[in-house]
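Hi Y.,

Following your request, here is the sequence exactly as I used it, all 332 residues.
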Amino acid sequence: MNKIKLSALELAPVKKGGNPREAIQRVLTAAQHIEKLGYERLWLAEHHNMEYIACSATVVLISHVAEHTSTLRVGSGGIMLPNHAPLVVAEQFGTLETLYPGRIDLGLGRAPGTDQSTAMALRRNNINTQFYFADDVKALQQYFSQDNYSSKVRAFPAEGLEVPLWILGSSTDSAYLAAELGLPYAFASHFAPAMLRNALEIYQNNFKPSAQLQQPYSLACVNVVGADTTEEAQYLSSSLYNMFAGIITNTRRPLSPPTEQTIYAGITEIEQAVQSMVSCTFVGDQAKLTEDLADFARQYNLDEIMTTSYIYDDDKRLKSYEILAHAINNIA
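Below is the corresponding structure, written out as tokens. Let me know if you'd prefer a different format.
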């Protein structure tokens, strides 16, 4: 197995007792920390109308993180393309690439990143944009291409720049598109693990080489909680499980301190729903993470693992990133 690359996904969750400014500072602190640890990239997700998530202005945060780091790749995980005109996305990411050359990724998703009412507000009631995802991706490729010089509509300063495009997915539809276009594929198994195996098999078996990529490149995003002991990691992970319980029951809360047992303990329906949603979660000390993630990477033929980190305590969160880095480096 080739050396597994390691990266991170940030949603800028607001902590209990905190505020969005502090959440954004936590993102920056994490970015600077994982850069020193040798992580490949940090991506920021796009979410809207979520009180305790501070990453709605994804492009702004990408620029902020890139400005305060030097080697870490920074990008979107992802830009929800149906919410935006491809021309605007090309202009924005062309500008980012101009400011931070060789460090910008453009991950693209077709989900709204929000509820339907908010999606309609973002799209000005054009609810059909999600059906044009493939066309919009191709339009983006054209805007970045040097061959677009004779078109009536051109994207400056994007034209001619090599900004890597990624296809994001939580189902099999995006896997077919990524394979057809010869683009790297990132699967959201941190919250939608059900179709992970099918999607990666479709992508890897149907991949067509492209100017950007000659061989399939597969990334899976997972939840990881690392600590000095597995017992401590299990305790810290309750913050993650409690947060997902809030999502499932539509009682969203800020990221809260860990609890001795989850707030839904004994409620079978919620226990099953949470477990189904976050089955791709790895909790433990360095040795356990090495063993479990090595098995996971081999099982799905992964090139890269991306992690979320829903740990309440700031220092323990940074320690988890460090433990994970050592765990991945130990995978033979």
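Residues 20-37 form the longest helix (18 residues).

Thanks again,
Q.
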